[in-house]
Amino acid sequence: IVLFANRFSDKLLTASIVASINNIPRNKALAALAPGEKFAYRGTLTGLVDDFVIDGKVFSNKGNCDIDLLFRNERKYGSRFHGSVSMDNVNLGYIINKGILGETTADTRLNVLFRRGGGMEIDVDTVSVKNIYLYGYNYSGIEGKGVYSDREFEGSLVSNDPNFKFSFDGRVSLKENFLNGAEYDFRALLSYANLSALNIDMHNNVSDLKFNADVRLLNSDTNITSGIVNVNGFEINRGNSSYRANNMSLKLDNTSDNHSAELSAPFARVRYSGPASLDVFSKKFYDIAVTSKVGNILPRDTSAVYTSGCYDFSLLTLTALQGMNAHLYLHAPQFSH
To answer: For residues 213 and 231, is the Cβ–Cβ distance under 8 A?
Structure first.
């Protein structure tokens, strides 16, 4: 048994200690935590050099943590921590280098693996968040569990915050390219969100939103995402105006040769097909039609922004949207390199 009292360390030293036990380079994810911050630990370490229990309290200027963790060196896989952590007003945004987050008070039981080849896997048995600061608002009453690995989360989350009533169950990708190799299979229910209180809508004193969604977007044989998104019970109120809609759906059917999308909603019908995905087409169409001068659209060399092929895009707005009734059809014949 080793006793520690106010022993100061930083994250680089911690990462180095873990690396020396594993006889591998420092884990980048562990070394990147809390840049420049010093920690004081008071408690005990009990066990062997590569298999021991950490039981004590961590102090820092960014908050305190009570920890009861088993550390185990699994030479084939990496370094694993398993047990419970209680955070008391910990500046989580500073710790993980995400400025949108702030002070957090939460209890969790989890299993964290710092992989031998880099990266991490987090298996959360339970988490109970008393408060977490996000985008200028303190959320409270959040419960959840799940697994985060390879930039994908699978699990469940329930929020009973008075301004954010929300539940999630399923799998969601957090990759940058959300249609290439990413999968989404979840059900989400937003019973109530006060967008004004959450600092999302800064222009209206009264602004709330609700909806429920079923999403199933999976990879095809070509590793391109296809599937369907269904949204019902959509309702938004902003000041003296409100809008309600049901039976909204987005279908994606993508292959290596062609991408197609179809949006069906009470306010519009949208159909698209082309050799590039809808998100890529929209971004590049916006680039040449909006961010450049409109008068220069035709002379511009489109081969620089569009994949060779035939693009079809149609948009029909219906009377449910402010009484408008219009039809736009765009057919771009052949873009050659």
So the answer is: yes
Q: By the 8 A CB rule, do 127 and 139 touch?
A: no
Distances in Å between the Cα of 235 and the Cα atoms of 192, 244, 262 are: 10, 4, 22
Which residues have C-beta within 8 Å of that of residue 20, sequence separation ≥ 6?
Answer: none
Which run of H or of E encompasses 58?
strand 51-59
Which two tokens mark 256? 């290596």
CA–CA dist 221, 231 (Å, integer): 27
Rounded to an integer, what distance in angstroms lies between the CA atom of residue 278 and that of residue 330?
14
CA distances in angstroms from 70 to 10, 63, 73, 74, 110, listed in the order given: 20, 22, 10, 12, 11
SS (H, E, C) 256-315: CCCEEEEEEECCEEEEEEECCCHHHHHHHHHHHHHHCCHHHCCCCCHHHCCCCCCEEEEE
Return the closest-CA partner of residue 125 out of 140, 141, 142, 108: 108
Residue written as tokens 């952590």?
A: 85
- The widest CA-to-CA distance across the chain, in whole angstroms, is 77
Backbone angles phi, psi at 288, to 5 degrees: -85, -25
- Which residues have a Cβ under 8 Å from the Cβ of 162 and sit 6 or more positions away? none
Q: Can you list the residues of the chain whose pLDDT is less than 70?
A: 1-37, 177-181, 220-224, 284-309, 317-337
Give CA–CA dist 264/230, Å, rounded: 10
In order, the DSSP letters of 162-222 are TTEEEEEEEEEE--SSTTBS--EEEEEEEEEEETTTTTS--S-SSEEEEEEEEEEEEE-TT
CA distance 316 to 19: 59
| pLDDT one-digit tens code per residue, 117-126 | 778 899 999 9
Three-class SS string for 219-268?
ECCCCEEEEEEEEEEEEEEECCEEEEECCEEEEEEECCCCEEEEEEECCE
Each residue's pLDDT tens digit, 205-243: 778 999 999 999 887 655 567 899 999 999 998 878 888
- DSSP string covering 37-55, please? -EEEEEEEEEEETTEEEEE
